[in-house]
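Holo prediction — NG1.
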Amino acid sequence: MVSPVDAMRRTFAAAFSGAVPTRLSRAPGRVNLIGEHVDYCGLSVFPMAIQREVRVAFRPRLDGLVRIHNTGPGFSTCEFIVEPDPAPGPTGDWGNYLKAAGQGLVRAFQVSRGIDALVSSDLPIAAGLSSSSALVVATALALLDANGVEIDRPALMMLLPEAERYVGTQGGGMDQAISLGAVAGTASRVDFNPVRVTAVPVPAGWRFVIASSLASAEKSGPAQVAYNERTRECAAALERVAATLSGTPPRSYSELLSRPNPDEWLRSARAVLAGPLLQRFRHVVSEAARVHMAQQAMERADLEAFGTLMNASHQSLRDDYGVSTGALDELVRIARGAGAVGARLTGAGFGGCIVALCDAAREEAVLGALGAEFYTPRNVCDLGDRLFTAEAAGAASVGSLAGA
Ligand code: NG1
Protein backbone atom coordinates (compact mmCIF):
# COMPACT_ATOMS: atom_id res chain seq x y z
CA MET A 1 0.00 0.00 0.00
CA VAL A 2 1.50 3.34 -1.09
CA SER A 3 1.33 6.04 1.60
CA PRO A 4 -0.30 9.35 0.59
CA VAL A 5 3.06 11.10 0.84
CA ASP A 6 4.81 8.50 -1.34
CA ALA A 7 2.01 8.84 -3.86
CA MET A 8 2.62 12.61 -3.87
CA ARG A 9 6.37 12.06 -4.45
CA ARG A 10 5.62 9.93 -7.50
CA THR A 11 3.06 12.29 -8.97
CA PHE A 12 5.40 15.22 -8.34
CA ALA A 13 8.24 13.48 -10.19
CA ALA A 14 5.93 12.73 -13.11
CA ALA A 15 4.74 16.35 -13.26
CA PHE A 16 8.16 18.00 -12.87
CA SER A 17 10.50 15.92 -15.07
CA GLY A 18 11.67 13.57 -12.35
CA ALA A 19 12.30 16.28 -9.72
CA VAL A 20 11.89 15.42 -6.04
CA PRO A 21 9.83 17.55 -3.62
CA THR A 22 11.68 18.34 -0.42
CA ARG A 23 9.09 20.05 1.76
CA LEU A 24 5.46 19.52 2.75
CA SER A 25 2.93 21.99 4.09
CA ARG A 26 -0.48 20.91 5.33
CA ALA A 27 -3.53 22.83 6.46
CA PRO A 28 -6.69 21.34 7.95
CA GLY A 29 -10.24 22.24 7.03
CA ARG A 30 -12.71 22.99 9.77
CA VAL A 31 -16.24 22.46 10.87
CA ASN A 32 -17.80 25.50 12.46
CA LEU A 33 -19.69 24.29 15.54
CA ILE A 34 -21.49 27.58 16.15
CA GLY A 35 -21.03 31.28 15.36
CA GLU A 36 -22.09 31.46 11.72
CA HIS A 37 -21.90 34.60 9.60
CA VAL A 38 -20.61 36.69 12.47
CA ASP A 39 -16.83 36.62 11.93
CA TYR A 40 -17.04 39.40 9.33
CA CYS A 41 -18.91 41.42 11.95
CA GLY A 42 -15.85 41.03 14.19
CA LEU A 43 -17.70 38.71 16.58
CA SER A 44 -16.43 35.48 18.12
CA VAL A 45 -16.92 32.08 16.50
CA PHE A 46 -16.46 28.49 17.69
CA PRO A 47 -14.95 26.18 15.04
CA MET A 48 -12.94 22.95 15.23
CA ALA A 49 -10.21 21.85 12.79
CA ILE A 50 -10.90 18.44 11.26
CA GLN A 51 -8.81 15.49 10.14
CA ARG A 52 -9.22 16.33 6.44
CA GLU A 53 -6.62 18.63 4.99
CA VAL A 54 -4.88 20.20 2.02
CA ARG A 55 -1.28 19.07 1.47
CA VAL A 56 1.28 20.86 -0.65
CA ALA A 57 4.48 18.95 -1.55
CA PHE A 58 6.96 21.45 -2.94
CA ARG A 59 10.49 22.49 -3.69
CA PRO A 60 11.70 26.07 -3.70
CA ARG A 61 12.70 27.67 -6.98
CA LEU A 62 15.42 30.24 -7.53
CA ASP A 63 13.16 32.49 -9.63
CA GLY A 64 9.70 33.91 -8.90
CA LEU A 65 7.70 31.33 -10.83
CA VAL A 66 5.00 29.31 -9.07
CA ARG A 67 3.96 26.10 -10.84
CA ILE A 68 1.28 24.07 -9.11
CA HIS A 69 -0.33 20.79 -10.11
CA ASN A 70 -3.34 19.33 -8.35
CA THR A 71 -4.04 15.61 -7.95
CA GLY A 72 -7.80 16.24 -7.94
CA PRO A 73 -9.84 15.55 -11.08
CA GLY A 74 -10.55 18.50 -13.35
CA PHE A 75 -7.83 20.83 -12.02
CA SER A 76 -5.58 22.40 -14.63
CA THR A 77 -1.96 23.25 -13.79
CA CYS A 78 -1.56 26.80 -12.49
CA GLU A 79 1.47 28.99 -13.26
CA PHE A 80 2.12 32.55 -12.19
CA ILE A 81 4.86 34.87 -10.97
CA VAL A 82 4.79 36.01 -7.34
CA GLU A 83 3.92 39.67 -7.64
CA PRO A 84 1.71 42.23 -5.87
CA ASP A 85 -0.95 42.49 -8.61
CA PRO A 86 -1.33 39.20 -10.49
CA ALA A 87 -4.13 39.15 -13.06
CA PRO A 88 -6.85 36.87 -11.68
CA GLY A 89 -7.98 33.87 -13.72
CA PRO A 90 -11.64 33.48 -14.66
CA THR A 91 -14.13 33.49 -11.77
CA GLY A 92 -14.03 30.14 -10.01
CA ASP A 93 -10.50 29.28 -11.20
CA TRP A 94 -8.77 27.41 -8.35
CA GLY A 95 -5.52 29.21 -9.23
CA ASN A 96 -7.03 32.42 -7.85
CA TYR A 97 -6.65 31.01 -4.31
CA LEU A 98 -2.95 30.36 -4.96
CA LYS A 99 -2.49 33.85 -6.36
CA ALA A 100 -4.40 35.21 -3.36
CA ALA A 101 -1.79 33.74 -1.01
CA GLY A 102 1.12 34.86 -3.25
CA GLN A 103 0.05 38.49 -3.66
CA GLY A 104 -0.79 38.81 0.05
CA LEU A 105 2.70 37.69 1.02
CA VAL A 106 4.49 39.83 -1.59
CA ARG A 107 2.65 42.89 -0.33
CA ALA A 108 3.70 42.19 3.26
CA PHE A 109 7.22 40.77 2.82
CA GLN A 110 10.08 40.62 0.37
CA VAL A 111 8.87 37.32 -1.02
CA SER A 112 10.48 36.73 -4.40
CA ARG A 113 11.05 33.00 -4.80
CA GLY A 114 8.43 30.72 -6.23
CA ILE A 115 7.86 26.98 -5.84
CA ASP A 116 7.18 23.87 -7.87
CA ALA A 117 4.33 22.23 -6.02
CA LEU A 118 1.75 19.50 -6.01
CA VAL A 119 -1.54 19.93 -4.15
CA SER A 120 -3.47 16.98 -2.80
CA SER A 121 -6.58 17.26 -0.67
CA ASP A 122 -9.10 14.96 0.99
CA LEU A 123 -11.26 17.91 2.00
CA PRO A 124 -14.59 18.10 0.15
CA ILE A 125 -14.67 21.24 -2.02
CA ALA A 126 -17.32 23.95 -1.64
CA ALA A 127 -18.85 22.03 1.26
CA GLY A 128 -18.65 24.68 3.95
CA LEU A 129 -15.59 22.94 5.42
CA SER A 130 -13.18 25.66 4.41
CA SER A 131 -11.31 23.95 1.58
CA SER A 132 -10.51 27.35 0.07
CA SER A 133 -8.84 28.77 3.16
CA ALA A 134 -6.97 25.51 3.77
CA LEU A 135 -5.55 25.87 0.27
CA VAL A 136 -4.60 29.50 0.90
CA VAL A 137 -2.99 28.64 4.26
CA ALA A 138 -1.01 25.65 2.91
CA THR A 139 0.19 27.67 -0.10
CA ALA A 140 1.18 30.61 2.09
CA LEU A 141 3.14 28.36 4.46
CA ALA A 142 4.93 26.81 1.49
CA LEU A 143 5.87 30.20 -0.01
CA LEU A 144 7.02 31.59 3.35
CA ASP A 145 9.14 28.49 3.92
CA ALA A 146 10.65 28.66 0.43
CA ASN A 147 11.60 32.29 1.06
CA GLY A 148 12.97 31.70 4.57
CA VAL A 149 10.44 34.16 6.03
CA GLU A 150 9.37 33.55 9.61
CA ILE A 151 6.17 35.12 10.82
CA ASP A 152 4.21 34.36 13.94
CA ARG A 153 0.82 32.70 13.64
CA PRO A 154 -1.36 35.60 14.88
CA ALA A 155 0.24 37.90 12.28
CA LEU A 156 -0.51 35.34 9.57
CA MET A 157 -4.07 34.94 10.88
CA MET A 158 -4.55 38.66 10.30
CA LEU A 159 -2.82 38.79 6.92
CA LEU A 160 -4.42 35.83 5.14
CA PRO A 161 -8.13 36.80 5.37
CA GLU A 162 -7.28 40.06 3.62
CA ALA A 163 -5.19 38.14 1.07
CA GLU A 164 -8.07 35.72 0.37
CA ARG A 165 -10.45 38.58 -0.42
CA TYR A 166 -8.48 38.76 -3.70
CA VAL A 167 -10.90 36.08 -4.99
CA GLY A 168 -13.85 38.43 -4.50
CA THR A 169 -15.51 37.04 -1.35
CA GLN A 170 -15.65 39.56 1.49
CA GLY A 171 -15.04 36.79 4.03
CA GLY A 172 -14.16 36.96 7.70
CA GLY A 173 -11.10 35.55 9.45
CA MET A 174 -12.44 32.39 11.08
CA ASP A 175 -11.16 29.80 8.62
CA GLN A 176 -7.55 30.95 8.43
CA ALA A 177 -7.37 31.40 12.22
CA ILE A 178 -8.60 27.91 13.09
CA SER A 179 -6.45 26.26 10.42
CA LEU A 180 -3.37 28.05 11.78
CA GLY A 181 -4.22 27.93 15.47
CA ALA A 182 -6.05 24.67 16.23
CA VAL A 183 -4.94 22.27 18.94
CA ALA A 184 -5.74 18.55 18.46
CA GLY A 185 -8.57 17.29 20.63
CA THR A 186 -10.08 20.75 21.07
CA ALA A 187 -12.52 23.19 19.53
CA SER A 188 -11.62 26.89 19.68
CA ARG A 189 -13.24 30.16 20.38
CA VAL A 190 -11.78 32.60 17.88
CA ASP A 191 -11.99 36.30 18.72
CA PHE A 192 -11.06 39.12 16.38
CA ASN A 193 -9.44 42.56 16.49
CA PRO A 194 -6.91 41.33 17.45
CA VAL A 195 -7.32 37.69 16.52
CA ARG A 196 -7.03 35.22 19.41
CA VAL A 197 -7.62 31.46 19.50
CA THR A 198 -8.70 29.88 22.81
CA ALA A 199 -8.78 26.07 22.88
CA VAL A 200 -11.59 24.22 24.66
CA PRO A 201 -11.18 20.42 25.01
CA VAL A 202 -13.96 18.47 23.31
CA PRO A 203 -15.51 16.25 26.01
CA ALA A 204 -14.94 12.51 25.62
CA GLY A 205 -17.99 10.90 24.09
CA TRP A 206 -19.14 13.93 22.07
CA ARG A 207 -19.42 13.18 18.36
CA PHE A 208 -19.79 15.75 15.61
CA VAL A 209 -21.23 14.13 12.48
CA ILE A 210 -20.84 15.94 9.16
CA ALA A 211 -23.28 15.29 6.31
CA SER A 212 -23.27 16.82 2.86
CA SER A 213 -26.41 18.24 1.24
CA LEU A 214 -24.92 17.13 -2.12
CA ALA A 215 -25.17 20.73 -3.35
CA SER A 216 -21.92 22.61 -3.60
CA ALA A 217 -21.78 26.11 -2.17
CA GLU A 218 -19.31 27.41 -4.75
CA LYS A 219 -18.44 30.93 -3.65
CA SER A 220 -17.55 32.03 -7.14
CA GLY A 221 -21.09 32.40 -8.48
CA PRO A 222 -24.47 33.20 -6.94
CA ALA A 223 -23.31 32.12 -3.46
CA GLN A 224 -20.58 34.76 -3.56
CA VAL A 225 -23.09 37.46 -4.50
CA ALA A 226 -25.46 36.34 -1.71
CA TYR A 227 -22.60 36.10 0.81
CA ASN A 228 -21.27 39.57 0.02
CA GLU A 229 -24.79 40.95 0.18
CA ARG A 230 -25.09 39.63 3.76
CA THR A 231 -21.85 41.37 4.77
CA ARG A 232 -23.20 44.68 3.41
CA GLU A 233 -26.57 44.22 5.10
CA CYS A 234 -24.91 43.60 8.47
CA ALA A 235 -22.80 46.74 8.11
CA ALA A 236 -25.82 48.80 7.05
CA ALA A 237 -27.92 47.54 9.97
CA LEU A 238 -25.20 48.46 12.45
CA GLU A 239 -24.79 51.91 10.94
CA ARG A 240 -28.51 52.66 11.21
CA VAL A 241 -28.78 51.50 14.79
CA ALA A 242 -25.57 53.29 15.82
CA ALA A 243 -26.84 56.59 14.42
CA THR A 244 -29.77 56.58 16.85
CA LEU A 245 -27.81 55.94 20.05
CA SER A 246 -26.76 58.45 22.68
CA GLY A 247 -23.06 59.15 23.31
CA THR A 248 -20.20 57.95 21.09
CA PRO A 249 -21.71 55.78 18.35
CA PRO A 250 -20.41 52.19 18.36
CA ARG A 251 -18.13 51.50 15.38
CA SER A 252 -18.47 47.74 15.52
CA TYR A 253 -20.85 45.02 16.67
CA SER A 254 -18.47 44.28 19.57
CA GLU A 255 -18.72 47.88 20.74
CA LEU A 256 -22.50 47.77 20.36
CA LEU A 257 -22.85 44.53 22.32
CA SER A 258 -20.62 45.75 25.13
CA ARG A 259 -22.71 48.89 25.79
CA PRO A 260 -24.04 48.93 29.34
CA ASN A 261 -27.70 49.24 28.41
CA PRO A 262 -28.71 46.63 25.79
CA ASP A 263 -32.39 47.63 26.02
CA GLU A 264 -31.51 50.96 24.43
CA TRP A 265 -30.04 49.49 21.24
CA LEU A 266 -32.60 46.70 21.06
CA ARG A 267 -35.38 49.32 21.12
CA SER A 268 -33.55 51.37 18.49
CA ALA A 269 -33.08 48.36 16.26
CA ARG A 270 -36.78 47.56 16.34
CA ALA A 271 -37.58 51.19 15.57
CA VAL A 272 -35.18 51.84 12.69
CA LEU A 273 -34.75 48.42 11.05
CA ALA A 274 -37.27 46.48 9.00
CA GLY A 275 -37.35 43.54 6.59
CA PRO A 276 -34.07 41.80 5.81
CA LEU A 277 -31.94 44.31 7.74
CA LEU A 278 -33.86 43.63 10.96
CA GLN A 279 -33.58 39.88 10.32
CA ARG A 280 -29.82 39.99 9.66
CA PHE A 281 -29.28 42.12 12.75
CA ARG A 282 -31.37 39.75 14.89
CA HIS A 283 -29.34 36.77 13.67
CA VAL A 284 -25.99 38.44 14.34
CA VAL A 285 -26.73 39.58 17.88
CA SER A 286 -28.47 36.34 18.88
CA GLU A 287 -25.71 34.18 17.36
CA ALA A 288 -23.09 36.19 19.28
CA ALA A 289 -24.84 35.30 22.54
CA ARG A 290 -25.11 31.64 21.51
CA VAL A 291 -21.35 31.38 20.89
CA HIS A 292 -20.57 32.39 24.45
CA MET A 293 -23.20 30.08 25.92
CA ALA A 294 -21.96 27.21 23.73
CA GLN A 295 -18.40 27.64 24.92
CA GLN A 296 -19.62 27.45 28.52
CA ALA A 297 -21.73 24.40 27.70
CA MET A 298 -18.70 22.60 26.25
CA GLU A 299 -16.56 23.58 29.24
CA ARG A 300 -19.04 21.95 31.61
CA ALA A 301 -19.61 19.01 29.18
CA ASP A 302 -23.32 19.84 28.89
CA LEU A 303 -24.19 18.03 25.66
CA GLU A 304 -27.90 18.88 25.70
CA ALA A 305 -27.27 22.60 26.20
CA PHE A 306 -24.75 22.69 23.35
CA GLY A 307 -27.19 20.85 21.09
CA THR A 308 -30.06 23.19 21.93
CA LEU A 309 -27.90 26.17 20.96
CA MET A 310 -27.02 24.49 17.64
CA ASN A 311 -30.73 24.04 16.92
CA ALA A 312 -31.43 27.68 17.66
CA SER A 313 -28.53 28.68 15.43
CA HIS A 314 -29.95 26.68 12.53
CA GLN A 315 -33.37 28.20 12.97
CA SER A 316 -31.90 31.69 12.95
CA LEU A 317 -29.77 30.97 9.86
CA ARG A 318 -32.82 29.55 8.09
CA ASP A 319 -35.45 32.09 9.07
CA ASP A 320 -33.54 35.32 9.66
CA TYR A 321 -30.38 34.91 7.62
CA GLY A 322 -31.86 33.09 4.63
CA VAL A 323 -28.87 30.82 3.96
CA SER A 324 -30.35 27.34 4.46
CA THR A 325 -31.75 25.06 1.76
CA GLY A 326 -34.42 22.35 1.71
CA ALA A 327 -31.74 19.63 1.69
CA LEU A 328 -29.90 21.15 4.68
CA ASP A 329 -33.17 21.39 6.61
CA GLU A 330 -33.94 17.78 5.77
CA LEU A 331 -30.52 16.57 6.98
CA VAL A 332 -30.99 18.50 10.21
CA ARG A 333 -34.41 16.93 10.74
CA ILE A 334 -33.14 13.39 10.07
CA ALA A 335 -30.15 13.79 12.40
CA ARG A 336 -32.32 15.09 15.24
CA GLY A 337 -34.88 12.34 14.65
CA ALA A 338 -32.13 9.74 15.05
CA GLY A 339 -30.99 11.08 18.40
CA ALA A 340 -28.66 14.01 17.69
CA VAL A 341 -29.09 16.58 20.46
CA GLY A 342 -28.51 19.37 17.95
CA ALA A 343 -27.89 19.90 14.26
CA ARG A 344 -27.30 22.92 12.08
CA LEU A 345 -25.93 23.97 8.74
CA THR A 346 -22.22 24.71 8.97
CA GLY A 347 -20.20 27.23 6.99
CA ALA A 348 -21.78 29.82 4.75
CA GLY A 349 -24.80 27.70 3.76
CA PHE A 350 -26.42 27.92 0.28
CA GLY A 351 -25.59 24.18 0.07
CA GLY A 352 -22.62 22.47 1.71
CA CYS A 353 -22.92 20.47 4.93
CA ILE A 354 -24.63 20.15 8.27
CA VAL A 355 -22.98 19.28 11.56
CA ALA A 356 -24.90 17.19 14.11
CA LEU A 357 -23.93 16.58 17.72
CA CYS A 358 -24.68 13.33 19.52
CA ASP A 359 -23.14 11.19 22.21
CA ALA A 360 -21.00 8.23 21.18
CA ALA A 361 -23.83 5.78 21.86
CA ARG A 362 -26.03 7.46 19.21
CA GLU A 363 -23.30 7.93 16.58
CA GLU A 364 -24.09 4.81 14.56
CA ALA A 365 -27.83 5.53 14.69
CA VAL A 366 -27.32 9.09 13.41
CA LEU A 367 -24.94 7.99 10.64
CA GLY A 368 -27.29 5.14 9.72
CA ALA A 369 -30.40 7.32 9.57
CA LEU A 370 -28.69 9.92 7.40
CA GLY A 371 -27.50 7.17 5.06
CA ALA A 372 -30.86 5.40 4.85
CA GLU A 373 -33.16 8.43 4.75
CA PHE A 374 -31.14 10.97 2.77
CA TYR A 375 -28.51 9.28 0.59
CA THR A 376 -30.08 5.90 -0.25
CA PRO A 377 -33.25 7.42 -1.76
CA ARG A 378 -30.97 9.59 -3.91
CA ASN A 379 -28.94 6.56 -5.04
CA VAL A 380 -25.76 7.94 -3.49
CA CYS A 381 -23.63 4.99 -2.39
CA ASP A 382 -20.13 6.45 -2.04
CA LEU A 383 -20.48 8.20 1.31
CA GLY A 384 -16.78 8.52 2.29
CA ASP A 385 -16.54 12.27 1.60
CA ARG A 386 -20.18 12.99 2.33
CA LEU A 387 -20.94 11.48 5.68
CA PHE A 388 -18.33 11.14 8.39
CA THR A 389 -17.55 11.90 12.02
CA ALA A 390 -15.20 14.82 12.57
CA GLU A 391 -12.04 14.36 14.60
CA ALA A 392 -10.61 17.44 16.29
CA ALA A 393 -7.31 17.99 14.44
CA GLY A 394 -4.27 20.16 15.13
CA ALA A 395 -2.94 23.19 13.27
CA ALA A 396 -1.35 23.63 9.86
CA SER A 397 2.38 22.91 9.61
CA VAL A 398 5.32 22.94 7.24
CA GLY A 399 8.44 20.78 7.33
CA SER A 400 10.65 18.26 5.63
CA LEU A 401 8.88 15.85 3.33
CA ALA A 402 11.32 13.13 4.41
CA GLY A 403 9.93 13.31 7.95
CA ALA A 404 6.29 13.28 6.87
P1 NG1 B 1 -17.16 28.73 4.18
O1 NG1 B 1 -18.07 29.08 3.10
O2 NG1 B 1 -17.70 27.71 5.08
O3 NG1 B 1 -15.79 28.38 3.73
C1 NG1 B 1 -17.40 31.31 4.88
C2 NG1 B 1 -16.32 32.32 5.25
C3 NG1 B 1 -16.14 32.44 6.76
C4 NG1 B 1 -17.47 32.65 7.48
C5 NG1 B 1 -18.47 31.58 7.00
C6 NG1 B 1 -19.84 31.77 7.58
C7 NG1 B 1 -14.44 32.64 3.71
C8 NG1 B 1 -13.08 32.22 3.32
N1 NG1 B 1 -15.03 31.95 4.68
O4 NG1 B 1 -16.96 30.02 5.15
O5 NG1 B 1 -15.25 33.51 7.05
O6 NG1 B 1 -17.97 33.93 7.27
O7 NG1 B 1 -18.60 31.58 5.59
O8 NG1 B 1 -19.81 31.73 8.98
O9 NG1 B 1 -14.97 33.58 3.16
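READOUT: Residues 43 and 254 are 6 Å apart (CA to CA).
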